[in-house]
Amino acid sequence: MIGNLLARIGGAFLALAHEVGGVVHLLFKVLIALVPPRFDRDELWRNMYKMGVRSVPIIILTAFFTGGIMVIQSSVFVKKFGATSLVGWGAGYAVFREVGPILLGLMFSGRVGSNNTAELGTMVITEQIDGLRALAIDPVNYLIVPRVLAMIVMLFLLTILGDIVAIVGAALFGQLLADVSFAAFWTSFSQNLHIVDLTHGLVKAAVFGFIVSLTSCWFGISVRGGAVGVGRAVNNSVVAAALGIVLSDYIITYTLS
Amino acid sequence: MIHVRDLHLSIGDRPLLKGIDLQVERGSVWGIIGPPGGGKSLLVKTLCGLFTPDRGSIRIDGVEVCGLDEPALVPIRRKIGMLFQNNALFDFMKVWENVAFPLARLKPDLDEAALRERALMRLREVGLAGSEDKWPSELSGGMKKRVGIARATMTESPLVIYDEPTAGLDPVTTSKIYDLLEKIRQSTGATVLAISSDIQGLSTFVKNMMLVHDGQILFKGPLPALQECEDPLVHQFIRGLSEGPL
Ligand SMILES: Nc1ncnc2c1ncn2[C@@H]1O[C@H](COP(=O)(O)OP(=O)(O)O)[C@@H](O)[C@H]1O
Ligand SMILES: [Mg+2]
Hints:
The complex is a heterodimer. Chain A is mostly helical. Helices cover 88% and strands 0% of the residues of chain A. Chain B is of the alpha/beta class. In chain B, 37% of the residues lie in helices and 25% in strands. Chain B contains nine helices and ten strands. The A-B interface holds A 126-128, 130-138 and B 45, 48-50, 70-71, 73-74, 77-78, 80, 82, 84-91, 101-102, 105.
C-alpha cells in the first residue's frame, strides 16, 4: 500500500523531471539557434500575425470588461467611503502589476499556446517533422525558434494593449456606475502610478510569453501516439503553462517588490 | 551506394531492427516487402538519419551516417528524396509550395516565379495540373501520394525512397503510379527503394526484392529468386497463404 503510493509519487516525480528536462533541453537548442540568428524570417512574420494580430479582438474584449468589472466590484466601497480619488490609482495598480499580465497570459496560453501544441503535435504524428528533417531542415530553427520569438514579442505587445484597454474600460465604467469623473480618474491614475508599476507587469508579460512558448512547443514536438496523444499534449501544455505562469508570477512579484 | 552492416535499432527498450546487412548498388531498383510492423519504414528512416541506431554501420556513397549530428547529416539527406508512408505533406503550404520546397532549400537563389514554374512542370508530370493552388487537405489519397512523389523527386536526388507509394489506392491508380515511378526513374537514373505490401504491382517496377520481418531481412536478391526462396515465412508471405508461421 505505502510502497504503491511511494512508487506512484516517484513515478510522477520522474515524469515531471522528464518534462522539465525536455523544456530545458529545448531552451538550449533555441538559444543556440539564436546566436548567430539561424531561423526562418517568413515563419516569424507569419506566426506573429497568426498569434498576435489575430488575438487582438479577444484581448480587447477581455481587457475592457476586466477593467470594468474591477470598478464595479469596488464601486460599493467607493460610494460608501467616498473614495473616488482612489479608483484611478487602484485600477491602474492592479491592472498593470497583476491582473493585466496574468489574465492575458492565461488567455494567450489558452488561445495561442494550445493551438501551437496541437499544430506541432499533428505535424509529428503526420510525419511532417520527419519530412522536414529528411529535407535537411532543422525543425528547431524552422518551426520552434520563430514561434518562441513570436509568442514572447506578441504577448508583450498584447499586454501593453490590454493594459490600455482595461484602464479605458475602468474609467468608462467608473463614470457610468461609480460616479467617478474622467478627470478624477485621470488625476488619481497619473499622480499615484509610476512607470515601475507598468514595467513590473511587462517583465511578467515577457516571462509568461517565454513560459507559454517553450511549454507549448515542447509538449507539441514530444507527442507520441496519434490523435489521443495530441489531445493529451494540449491538455498537459495548458496545465503546465498555467502552473508556470502562477509560479513565476509569485517569484517575480517577490523579487521585484 | 548503400552499405548497411549489422544494424541494430531499439526505441525505448524494444529492439526493432535486429542486425540488418544490406548492399544496394548505384542505379539498382529494390522492392521492400514484409508483414506490417516488421520494420520497413523504420529501416528506410534510419537510412536517412531520422533514427539513431544502437550499433552497426550505414554508409551512403562511402560516408558513414551513424553517429553524425543533424548539421553533418545535411549533405547526406540532400542525396535522398523520400516519400513518407503518410505523405508528410506540409499542410501549411499549398500544393505547389510543397513540391517546390526541397528545390527552394537546395537552390536559395531561385526566385518564386522560377520555383513555381518548376513545380508546375513536375505536377503536370504526375498528372496534377490545375491542383497547384490547392491545400493538401483538399486532395484525395491518390492525389496526395502523387504530390508526395513529385516532392520526393523534385531535386532529382541520386537515391529515392518511396514508402508505400500505392497503399490504399485502387488498381488503376496503382498501375498509373508505378508507370510514373518508372518514367521518373528512367529520366533520372536514380537508385530506388520502394516499400509496398502489393507484391504483384511492385514486381512490375523493381528488379530486386528484400523481405523484412521482425527487424530482420529474411530474403534479399533478384526478383526471380524470391519465388524459389525456401524460408517458410517468405514462402507463405509471397503466396498469401493463411497456413504457415505468420
Ligand atoms: N517512432 C516510433 N516509436 C516507437 N515505436 C515505433 C516507432 N516507429 C515504429 N515503431 C515500431 O516499430 C515497428 C516497425 O514499424 P514500421 O517500421 O513502421 O513497420 P512497417 O514494416 O509496417 O513499416 C512497429 O512495431 C512499430 O510499433
Ligand atoms: Mg511502414
